[in-house]
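User: For a benchmark we're assembling, each entry needs the component sequences followed by a predicted structure for the full assembly. Here are entry 17's components. Please fill in the structure.
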Amino acid sequence: MTAPDVPVVSLPWRVLDDYRCFGCSPHNPFGLGLEFAEHPDGIVTRFCLDRGYESYPGVVHGGLLGVVCDEAMGNLIVLRTGLVAFTTGMRMRYLQPILVGDTCTCVASLSSPESDAGLTSTRAEIFNGAGDLAATSSATYRRVPFSTTRDRISLGDEEADRLDRALTNTIPGVQR
Amino acid sequence: MTTSQNHAATTVTVADITATLTRIVAAELGVPEASISADSNLRTMEGADSVKVLRTVAKIEREYDIELEDADVFEASTVADIARVVHQALETS
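Assistant: Structure for entry 17:
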């Protein structure tokens, strides 16, 4: 995957030696290995998908674009709140195909104030290599403190403590 | 990129939406705003194509922080049609 041109934001998951997130882990040989950087609207990632992610010949599979948007929006919430964010609903609007081998960008931003129900609404936009808007996404996430979701994640106590500290130490908008 | 405005339905009229939509369509098609009216058909205007129509829809969704139903989007043809759909979405959001 192609990294953004600006300094990469360190995600809290990086304290885990072997996390395998399909979207953002550098340890998953099948994953996208996305990296993120700060952007005036939120965070941005740059990606270039090869034929292993193809749908119709020469066209990137739309589901993968959903993964990119979900990853960008979810990690934006994590970085801004220090909470774990679970997707509760997500919609994609595809405007034009993304071609295999095209270097694209995805920008995620918060779209609405946080609700009392612990929900956060976000948006993401994917631009192709020519800078044309190619897909948009809107989604809702439930923000959950790590302590309340601890039992649903397969981690040993030592790694769980390390991740809990990393999330707690996440300061909104500050690179670590 | 513009920042979402979080428009309140009570303060946005169909005329407001039409003006915003006209601005977006003009930019998308590269034509003067004065050449676009409420009756302008976005699917048959010179320079328009399906991608530009969808891009217009995506930009109006972002402008008003709404999600339009695909059925509404693909049934709408004129600026007035889309403005009405946007207004309805704001009223129910």
